[in-house]
Amino acid sequence: LRTAILISGRGSNMDALIEAARRPDYPAEIALVLSNRPDAPGLAKAKTAGVAAAAVDHKIYAGREEFERSLQLVLEAYRIDFICLAGFMRLFTPWFIEQWRGRMLNIHPALLPSYRGLHTHERALADGVKIHGCTVHFVVPEMDEGPIVAQAAVPVLDGDTPETLAARVLAQEHAIYPLALRLVASGVARIEGNRVLGALAAS
Ligand code: GRF
Questions:
Q1: Where along the chain is N(1)-(5-phospho-beta-D-ribosyl)glycinamide bound (predicted)?
Q2: How many whole angstroms from 87 Cα to the centroid of ligand 1?
Q3: What domains are defined for the chain?
Q4: Alpha-carbon gap, residue 137 to 178, rounded angstroms
Q5: Within a 13 Å sphere around the CA of 164, how many CA atoms are in the beta-carbon half?
Q6: 121 given a catalytic annotation
Q7: pLDDT one-digit tens code per residue, 15-41
Q8: Relative to the CA of 86, which ligand 1 atom is closest?
Q9: How far apart are CA 190 and CA 47, in angstroms?
């Protein structure tokens, strides 16, 4: 499965996916890293890791659709058949999502359906929840919704700051994203309605 990872920044989940996909028995190949920001630190890391890396700068396009058509052309040029969003900070139009229906995963730093959107760790701390975590899910037109492939839970500890909690969650993100892609790419996990059968829970 020729997979593209879409990033906007640091790319630590990208690193975890690239590393996992090096294993000869891994069912997906990371064929491209694509960023909407030419200065994303992840792009340089991808090149160092020997993975093709490209940028499609959203700022130079008149609108979302023009930007997405350009993304789509690059994805087609690299014969990509699966997408992993990993800290990609642009919302897609329904057109783009339809092109990739059932073939695009995202990772979100919260236990969906709780804490959709941004600043998840700050909001979890403010609410005093004791369990927090991360979710890998298929992408649908609604933001941070879609069939769930994998979740991992972490405890929220007394004295946590958004930074310490984020770090605990991030370690789990790096564990479950490669597992989730493996489950989907191998066909073990599959969508049925709005659920994924063969999904994974970790804590
Ligand atoms: C991660 O916390 C991910 O869950 C969120 O954005 C962050 C990206 O981090 N969507 P990185 O670029 O993978 O290091």
A1: 11-13
A2: 4
A3: 1-100 (3.40.50.170), 107-203 (3.40.50.170)
A4: 13
A5: 8
A6: no
A7: 999 999 999 999 999 999 999 999 999
A8: 13
A9: 32
